[in-house]
Design brief:
There is one protein chain. The chain has about 550 residues and is of the alpha/beta class. About 40% of the residues lie in helices and about 25% in strands. The strands form 4 sheets. The chain has a 6-stranded mixed β-sheet, with helices on both faces. Strands 17-18-19-14-20-21 form a 6-stranded mixed β-sheet, with helices on both faces. A hairpin with a 5-residue loop joins β12 and β13. α5 packs across α7 and α9 packs across α23. It is globular and about 75 Å long.
Length: about 550
């Protein structure tokens, strides 16, 4: 098969001081055949995005590329191309779809203008021609009502629609190479399915090559013909997708496959990378559901939330985020809440913590209706109901040390006799979540995403809560880091008898964690039951739709992991 791109001995380092170099990629070589899809997989920091951005020469100014490195595009070394040559290639013959569309789309320009701009610059179209072609492209990528969306701003579109606009921009000039850098990481399972299917159709129709970057091997099995597995800046294994899934040779590849929660079993602990790489014995004992004992800890009845939004100069419209939700929360058990973005699952978590006030309904906690308590009376209950947010980068104050982050809630709630005692308690909680004592004096930016989420968990634990709301708290993490955090949450639940509300769009993770599940669609609970009931015998069409959208690549990883 003819190669469109040949990467040979790629070395990339970043200057971190006058003389210091951080080596991100070491001796990486791989080919991207014409009219084919290649996947680069690995954890954060593995070098996959650096390798891909080297192809289109979009590395930061402090990047240093090795003298022996070559990236050949149809026989021409791109590393020797002039900036003007690269500008001509980018957009016209090579395009990139980035992970976060809201960071890539210009918020002050309408989406039609942003698509048309590429066509005017690279295809020489007139404004009218570019606008008509932009309309066609929005239709091609599956945007509903494309003529109306042509004049929309990015913030007026959903996350999946924003990503489709990014794809429309990327394919506007029918490039020979499309680089998709984690394009589905934060998307719902159904939207993820749509984006993956869309990329596959576009690749087939336009006969372009696709470099698909991901940390999720299950998803990669959906789209790629060949796979390159990277770790610590090096290629650990490369081959066809069938070989990688059917008979992985490298222990790290086997570890990536095994870390993902499986649909057919619930081991007491998930394997992590080091378990597989170091040949440690894996847990064979199964997790059993926590039995229901006594009365419900929280009883929710008729819980609703409506937002009144302006719709024109004198008109308003009402959006029902949650409609008449009823459920029970039992001590020591985990209630999973699943659904797409906009289904109302996060709003339920926010109402339980009173970070959002309910429009109607009751939240009975030990006979007290939290929904009607005045703010001053809520303080004791805020200690008992805590929340872990999705993004640890945004939920931790960057100006506080970890010690200050943990001590502040204790000081506010009168925990500890003084600063010294609160410091001792904070260090104890850091140890409990697997962080060293010297983390106490460091700042959040000095830690990885998984470590920051551990800090967020430790902050919750300083309150000694009874209930923790986990709002998409592992969705942005690598599969290996995700497994570590899930194991930690289960250990803490077992030790302290914690009750969890586990909110997620990742159905495999929810099945692993939850004893009971609520399925939400457009603000309503459409199905409920135990974890086994929901997954083995889904009754509602929407639940079946969610389960059908789980990437088929998981099946391959499950058989290998087993």
């Amino acid at each position: 098969m003819t190669s469109l791109i040949e990467v040979r001995d790629l070395e990339v380092a970043f200057r971190t001081g006058k003389t210091d170099l951080h080596h991100a990629v070491r001796g990486v070589s791989f080919d991207i055949p014409a009219n084919a899809t290649v996947a680069l997989v690995g954890e954060s920091g593995s070098g996959k995005s650096v390798s891909a951005m080297s192809i289109v020469r979009l590395l930061p100014d402090n990047a240093v590329i090795g003298k022996r490195s070559r990236i050949l595009y149809q026989g021409t070394d791109l590393l020797q191309a002039t900036p003007e040559d690269m500008r001509r290639l980018r957009g016209k013959e090579m395009s990139v779809v980035f992970q976060e569309p809201m960071s890539s789309l210009n918020p002050v320009f309408r989406v039609g203008e942003q698509i048309a701009e590429v066509l005017r610059i690279h295809a020489g179209m007139s404004p009218r021609q570019a606008r008509e072609r932009a309309l066609e492209l929005l239709g091609e990528v599956g945007i509903p009502e494309p003529r109306a969306r042509l004049n929309a701003y990015p913030h007026e579109l959903s996350g999946g629609q924003q990503q489709r606009v990014m794809i429309a921009i990327a394919i506007a000039c029918e490039p020979k190479l499309l680089i998709a850098d984690e394009p589905t990481t934060a998307l719902d399972v159904t939207v993820q399915r749509q984006i993956v299917d869309l990329l596959a159709r576009l690749q087939e129709r336009q006969k372009m090559s696709v470099l698909f970057i991901s940390h999720d091997l299950g998803l990669v099995g959906e789209i790629a013909g060949s796979v390159v597995v990277m770790r610590h800046g090096e290629v650990r294994e490369a081959g066809t997708a069938a070989d990688i899934f059917g008979a992985p040779r490298d222990a790290y590849t086997r570890a990536l496959l095994a870390c993902r929660p499986r649909m057919d079993t619930r081991p007491r602990r998930l394997p992590v990378i080091d378990d597989i790489v170091n040949n440690r014995p894996l847990a064979t004992a199964q997790r059993m559901p926590v039995p229901i004992e006594g009365k419900a800890l929280i009883e929710v009845a008729g819980l609703s939330k409506a937002y009144r939004l302006k719709d024109g100069l004198f008109r308003h419209k009402v959006i029902d985020a949650v409609k008449l939700a009823d459920f029970l929360l039992y001590k020591g058990r985990t209630l999973g809440v699943v659904g797409e973005s906009g289904s109302g699952k996060t709003t339920i978590g926010m109402m339980l913590t009173r970070l959002t006030d309910a429009s109607a309904g009751r939240i009975l906690f030990e006979g007290i209706d939290l929904a009607t308590l005045p703010p001053a009376s809520m303080r004791p209950y805020r200690r008992r109901i805590q929340i872990i947010f999705q993004n640890p980068y945004a939920s931790l104050n960057p100006r506080f040390t970890v010690g200050q982050i943990l001590a502040e809630p204790m000081r506010i709630h009168g925990i500890g006799a003084g600063d010294d005692e609160r410091a001792r308690l904070a260090i104890g909680w850091l140890d409990k979540v697997g962080l060293p004592a010297d983390a106490f004096g460091k700042y959040p930016h000095e830690f990885s995403g998984g470590q920051r989420q551990r800090i967020a968990i430790a902050r919750c634990l300083t309150m000694r809560p009874e209930i923790i709301i986990c709002d998409e708290s592992v969705s942005a993490l690598d599969v290996s880091v995700q497994a570590t955090v899930l194991n930690l949450l289960l250990d803490l639940q077992e030790e302290f008898g914690l009750t969890y509300v586990f909110i997620s769009h990742d159905l495999a993770v929810v099945k692993y964690m939850a004893d009971d599940i609520l399925v939400m669609n457009q603000g309503e609970i459409v199905e409920r039951g135990t974890s086994e009931e929901i997954y083995s015998n889904p009754r509602h069409p929407y639940t079946r739709q969610l389960l059908a959208a789980i990437p088929r690549g998981y099946a391959a990883s499950q058989s290998q992991a087993g």
